[in-house]
Amino acid sequence: MPLFQTSVINKHLKTIDKQTIKDAFSTFKAHFHNAAIQENIRNSKEEQYQEGFLNHMFVSVLGYTLNPTPNFNLTTEYKNVKDNKKADGAIVIENVVKAVVELKGTNTINLGNIEAQAFGYKNNQPDCVYVITSNFEKLRLYIDNAIEHIEFNLFTLTEKDFELLYLCLSYQSIEKGIPKKIKEESVSKEDEITKKLYRDYSLFKRELHQNIVTLNPEYDALTLFKKSQKLLDRFLFLFFAEDRQLLPPNSVRLILTDWKDLQERDENIPLYNRFKKYFGYLNTGYKGKRYDVFAYNGGLFLLDEVLDNVKIDDNLLYKHTYKLSEYDFESEVDVNILGHIFENSLNELDELAAHIAGHEIDKTKTKRKREGIVYTPKFITTSMIENTVGRLCSEKKIDFGIVEDDYFTDKKRSKKSTQLLFEKLKNYRGWLLQITICDPACGSGAFLNQALNFLIDEHRYIDELQAKLFGDALILSDIENTILENNLFGVDINEESVEIAKLSLWLRTARPNRKLNDLNNNIKCGNSLIDDPEVAGDKAFDWQKEFPQIFGSEKLAPNIIVIDQVENPDYPKLIKEKTLEAHLKTEQSIELQKEAIKRSEEAIEIYKKVYEYAKKMEAVSDPTAEFEIKKRGFDVVIGNPPYVRAELISKYAGYFQKTYQTYHSVADLFTYFYEKGFSILKPNGLFGFISNTFDKTKAAIELRAWLKNNVTILKYIDFTDVQIFEGATTYPIIFIAKNEKSSNKYLEYIKMTKQNVEDIALHIPSNVEQNNLQKENWRFKNNEASDIIKKLQNYPLITEKYGKTYYGIKTALNEAFLIPKNLIYDEVFLKPIYEGKELSKWINNSPNQSLILFKSKWTKSKFGNLDEKNALEKIKAFKPEIINHLLPYQQKAIARYDKGDYWWELRNCAYYHLFEKPKIIFPNLQNKNKFSLDVEGIFINAPAVMLSLAHLSNPIIEGKMLLAILNSKLIWYFLKSICVVRSGGYIEVKPQYFEQLPIPVIKEIDHQHFIDKANLMISLNKELQEVSGKFQRNIQRKFSMKELPAKLQNWYLLTYGEFIVELGKKKIKLSLTDEAEWENYFIVENEKAHQLKFQINKTDHEIDNMVYELYELTDEEIKIIEAF
Q: Mind spelling out the 3-state secondary structure of 451-508?
């Protein structure tokens, strides 16, 4: 989507005086469109023209005042707040930096290369909103972040485009924050249009399907749904094409008008027939008196036996096509919206399929859930393409010896040097033409579209260098079709997604009077992971067979020049001939402007054939060599594999176990996409996936081992709990790697934060040695931090002395089996119980719930082997209050997967007795140590966890010593390094992680120290709990409040003023007398709480030091832990 919406720009342009813009453009044009000045600018070094540029552009044209003129608002060499680095310029208004300016000479062609540097300056100025970069010929404006920008070519800028530049960059606009307002309004407008379009599109889709099913009963309903989707794709192409000058303007309206005219002449031709005729034009072409239609073809408009014979209601078709044609698909609607439309369409497909079959739809198991479909945001696809395709391109430019500075016009350069430089570009172009990029779970094509954009830009970059080298006018290569045919490949299990992916690529590359590519050989439908038809049916996918152009075949790939085998080919002569031919075509394209695009295409074809020829030359000298290019895989594999839990793919478990080395019984589906992705990747190829985190999960233990041993990890970008997928809670990571075995290399680890989450490149990575990653979990720490973990792991595991841990009670229906503690009284079948959220550090409040506990098999042991009806009568008579409470939940209780013999019983559990013995208990989600000792026999509810102490000789004493260690800073450091991170800064302390804790044996001489400290902490925390609880109860009684908000629960952390504010939020206003009385009470109680808190913190610190000594940490190691 463009940075700004056209309608928003037009609204703001109306606020600027037209004559002011005209005068400014006149001044601008006199300088920046002067050929002699342009030449001088190109020949100037960066430092020579920096201040001149600020004067000519910002002062003379845009109305700024440059330092040292009094009351200046523009200055050069502006220093950072935090260091001594300086931006080339800054716009400073009322002592606030509004924009930083970074300037380079025209020898910096790609302004993207200075993006990070410029944003480094911005991030050092707290209130800076704008970043402006320029090489004196081109100028970019960024607003807030680096995701999108707007770029102007100053040497060719039209008056219309200058209006936008002036609107964005004039002093008045920056002073009033106009560019940011335009962006915000554009985002809002875009969101509004997207939602409205989706509503209209969805309504059309539903009504169209219903109508087609009603009017065409001879066809299967599900088939008709899929055909209606194809028909919608055709209409979408029409809407985009007529607004983007691919078809005559208002083509849809013309079809509708013509049909109306026919109706009035009593010629009752179905409206759909008129559309079918137009679809035929798009397939074969049409020349008429009123308009011509080019034969775009591409497969979308080929004859379709079902679609060509269905009947559709005229009024329905007229209403919806008329409404959708009102949208501006040129400036208002982006091709990327198709991804969002597709994502939602899949749920509708599931619902319709279920409706057709007469089933209820389970919305937790929709196609979006089952196939793990989420739409990848643009900032993710952009970053991943840059880290894979971009990285590969950068490496190749180095290999070919391409240096930007070498390509600027030098009149003294010899023809030989020029030819050599041109050779480098030609070789790079040849390589670029044959790079292969694959998304094995392509969805609606987000990654493929971004790769297409990147490759187009890279060809433009070559064009620019070539123009600079020869001093020619810039001729842009017409390269899109070549990229689609040769560079981009995708597979998806979903037919609709494949069609949408094709459509989005067509719409992105379609040009007037140029045929659409047939993408059937590149974008395919199938199960990327399974090649066995016995397992996957007709979705089984054999990569070698489906993509022979990538993995080799008996036949030569198309467009390959076959070279006869010779003994000693004159390689230099042949290359020279092809090179001169290519350059001649380029020169002719400049002289013959009407033939420019055609000639450029011919030149590119020659580049491609020369490169392919050169590849073959390596084989010619070998008499046994095969005359074909066997790529042995893709250059880049990239994507967002489906997130599908193991239980939803259980039917394929046997196949995965037999086929994949990364198999694990509870592995997510994306695990196998990782292994498959590398298997279809060339040796040394680049790999980029965004998936759920797997650095610590038990399910990914085999995946971690496989990746560590088989690939070189380049980057691991961890979003932790930052949510980036709309409508899906995930814990995503980006994994970038090279398909080669690691040789003790370092990877870059980036931990993302919510701040600047969309500017991934601006986050500073830490270097982690790949060899330090352990199979059990990956800890991304530097060597010093890793050494601490390794040192701790030399001590015995907690399980060696204390045994294994257990989850709390699993009722599978808490709403029925957990009740308020005073609701029913029963000493035998009601047990006090904590939920995980109630558990704290050291001590807990009294539980406020009871567990209804009829153990599995209890009913039979009490009443005999009865059927459910008789058993229910017996137990109801035995415990009427409890059973009457449970009866409203009977059907839900019956539906539980895991229960006892009868629905009122809980599942079998071998450790019920341990709940009533001394134990350490803790919640599985923790944002700080939350370990406590229970000696009262209180149950806990899963997923809270317990460590039983019942087998110890003195469970309470030994439990207290252990508790002191568990609640230490060192243990928290260790847990944070091994546990999975969850949202809100929590970690998941599952049994599998807790049982990895190393616990040294405490010397007997130190036992009492640990016991005393634990007793003191339990006592202090209990006292604080009582002081705080008493104050809270007084608030509740005084102001009739049933529940207190979090801040009032932690009242002692507030000032009295803040306390009054919190009361005010609950609509409580105190009189002056009451305020004075409450202030005295608050101060006294607050002082008590603070004294206790001080003692708690002091004792906590003393325990930490005792634990450091226990583990024999050095001073340097302690500093690392304390700084954590």
A: HHHHHHHHHHHHHHHHHHHHCCCCCCCCCHHHHHHHCEEEEECCHHHHHHHHHHHHHH
- pLDDT value of residue 379: 83
For 576, phi and psi rounded to 5 degrees?
Answer: -60, -45
CA distance 1076 to 1073: 5
- Spatial separation of the C-alpha atoms in residues 102 and 138, rounded to whole Å: 12
How is 377-390 classified by DSSP, letter by letter? PHHHHHHHHIIIII
Order the strands of the 712-718 sheet from edge to edge.
Answer: 523-525, 488-492, 437-439, 634-639, 681-692, 732-738, 712-718, 746-751, 766-769
- What is the Cα–Cα distance from 825 to 966, expressed in whole angstroms? 36
1103/1083 Cα distance (integer angstroms): 30
Q: How far apart are CA 155 and CA 139, in angstroms?
A: 10
**Count of all residues that appear for the chain in the document:** 1124
Per the CB < 8 A criterion, the answer to whether 745 and 756 are in contact is: no
Q: Are strands 732-738 and 712-718 parallel, antiparallel or unpaired?
A: antiparallel
619: which residues sit within 8 A by CB, 6+ positions away?
625, 626, 627
CA–CA separation, 691 and 246 (whole Å) = 38
Where are any strands of DSSP class E within 292-362?
292-293
Residue 665 CB neighbour total at 10 angstroms: 10
Distance CA 690, CA 699 (A): 17
Do residues 733 and 717 make contact, with C-beta atoms less than 8 angstroms apart?
yes
Both tokens assigned to 679:
């298997």
Supply the DSSP string of 88-136, one letter for each residue: EEEEEETTEEEEEEEE--TT---GGGGHHHHHHHHTTSTT--EEEEE-S
Nearest to 845 by CA among 969, 936, 919: 936
Give the pTM. Answer: 0.74
Q: Which residues contact 545 (CB under 8 A, 6 or more apart)?
A: none
Give the per-residue pLDDT at 146: 83
pLDDT band at residue 744 using 50, 70 and 90 as cut-offs: low
8-15 mean pLDDT: 89
Burial class (CB in 10 A: 0-12, 13-18, 19+), 425: buried
Report the distance separating Cα 134 and Cα 1002, nearest Å.
65
Q: Where are the alpha helices (DSSP H) in 285-336?
A: 314-324
pLDDT 10s digits, 681-709: 999 999 999 998 898 888 999 999 999 99
**Sheet harboring 932-934: ordered strands across?**
805-807, 945-948, 919-922, 932-934
Residues 942-964: tens digit of each pLDDT: 999 999 999 999 999 999 999 99
- b/e for 953-975, b at 16 or more Cβ within 10 A? eebebbbbbbbbbbbbbbbbbbb
Q: What's the CA gap between 888 and 674, in Å, rounded?
A: 47
Q: Which two tokens stand for residue 840?
A: 């704290």
Phi first, then psi: give them for residue 92, nearest 5 degrees: -120, 115
Geometric angle at alpha carbon 597, from 592 and 598, rounded to 5° = 85
Q: Closest Cα partner for 701 from 649, 647, 664, 733? A: 664
Name the residue with higher pLDDT: 340 or 727: 340
CA pair distance 763, 750, nearest whole angstrom: 7
Q: What is the largest CA-CA distance in the chain?
A: 109
CA distances from 860 to 857, 867, 871 (A): 6, 10, 8
Estimate to the nearest angstrom the gap between the alpha carbon of 692 and the chain centroid.
Answer: 10
Find the helix or strand (DSSP H, E) in which 412 lies: none
Distance CA 367, CA 149 (A): 36
